[in-house]
Amino acid sequence: MNVRSNPVRQRSCASLAFAALAILCSTGLAHATGNVARGQMLYKGCADCHAINENAVGPMHKGVVGRKAGSVPGYDYSADLKSSGIVGTEDNLDKWLAGPQAMVPETKVFFDVPDAQDRADIIAYLKEKAR
Which of 2, 3, 86, 106 is deepest in the core (most CB within 10 A)? Predict the structure, then answer.
């Protein structure tokens, strides 16, 4: 007897597939685990405009994880970024690094990080070093 001819078995297979999908989604396997040391190396590309502890061409990154976008004193953000309401969660930082113009079209930022692992590594570095 095959699965197609057995309705009980069809439901069991469908239930098992649904449960597996739910587990994969809930564990966040879509996000890569970041490597702090590699993130530090990759951050050197960000350092053309940013520093951890002081504003430069771009705003400082100290406290970027968990901070409301457009809120660093002494930095002249675009009006759209200031009013975006974006908070620097890991998910938002990942989206931001993937394409800042997609999140805030009028942002001054033009640099993106297309590789998911590179983004995860940079975020891991920022979480540890930019507290």
Answer: 86
